[in-house]
Every structure is written in structure tokens, then in C-alpha cells.
């Protein structure tokens, strides 16, 4: 069973270049919206991470631009949890609601960092693994 969550955004004017096309750097903000939806589904949002003593910064990312989104487009950001045992790998697909066209394919990789010492962990902490396990059991 795969954890998937969706988020929506309507492209605001300020996210666009002079041709009213989404400026490429703004897609990273849209990925964040998708990541927040996914983490909420897992019951491991940023407040819970901090409460447990961890941050999960982005350490690597890849984005493929497939089709343009423009001012006013309604977009769906689908986020999928692909890896969680040693790191978090989240894959994304951003589609235009009007025609279902894929605009972006991307992934981000996150590693756990202890807030008390700032050190990277080379395995996911038990608090995250437990959240994934609870989610998996709830889907059975």
C-alpha cells in the first residue's frame, strides 16, 4: 500500500513571468504544498517532527518540466511516499485540472537531522517509522 495525498493550488498572478507562465522556481513552493498534505496524512507534520526532536531538510531534488502552467490554472499536486526507512523520498506529479496534462514530475529526498545536535541521522527515527506503520495498519 502506498501513501498518496493530493493538494490543490490555483496559479496566482505573482507566480508568473511576464508571459503569464509559472516561473520555474515557484514549482518548488507547489511541491511544499504537496509535501505538507502528505505529511498531514501521515500525522507527521512539521510541528510533530519538531516535537519529536527532528527536522527533515531537503538534501536532493529533481524536477522535470513537462508542460507549462499559466496564470489562473487549477493544479493538483499529487505526492507519494516512496521511501522512509533510511530517508524520505517523496515523488510528485503536478497536473492541470482542466485537461489532466502533467506539468511537472519531481522528487525530493530528505534526511533526518537531530534538532538537539544538528547531526544527520543515517536511518529514519523510530517516531517516523511508527507513524508509517500506524498508517499502513489503518489501510488494512
From TrEMBL:
Keywords: Hydrolase. The keyword Hydrolase applies. One of its GO terms (molecular function) is fatty acyl-CoA hydrolase activity. NCBIfam families: YbgC/FadM family acyl-CoA thioesterase (TIGR00051). Belongs to the 4-hydroxybenzoyl-CoA thioesterase family. This is Thioesterase. The lineage of its organism: Bacteria, Pseudomonadati, Pseudomonadota, Gammaproteobacteria, Alteromonadales.
Amino acid at each position: 500500500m502506498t501513501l498518496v495525498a493530493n493538494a490543490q493550488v490555483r496559479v496566482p498572478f505573482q507566480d508568473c513571468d511576464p508571459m503569464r507562465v509559472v516561473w520555474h522556481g515557484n514549482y518548488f513552493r507547489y511541491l511544499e504544498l504537496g509535501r505538507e498534505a502528505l505529511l498531514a496524512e501521515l500525522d507527521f507534520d512539521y510541528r510533530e517532527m519538531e516535537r519529536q526532536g527532528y527536522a527533515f531538510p531537503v538534501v536532493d531534488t529533481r524536477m522535470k518540466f513537462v508542460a507549462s502552467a499559466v496564470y489562473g490554472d487549477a493544479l493538483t499536486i499529487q505526492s507519494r511516499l516512496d521511501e522512509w526507512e533510511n530517508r524520505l523520498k517523496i515523488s510528485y506529479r503536478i497536473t492541470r485540472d482542466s485537461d489532466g496534462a502533467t506539468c511537472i514530475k519531481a522528487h525530493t529526498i530528505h534526511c533526518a537531522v537531530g534538532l538537539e545536535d544538528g547531526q544527520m541521522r543515517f536511518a529514519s527515527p523510530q517516531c517516523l517509522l511508527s507513524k508509517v506503520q500506524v498508517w499502513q495498519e489503518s489501510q488494512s
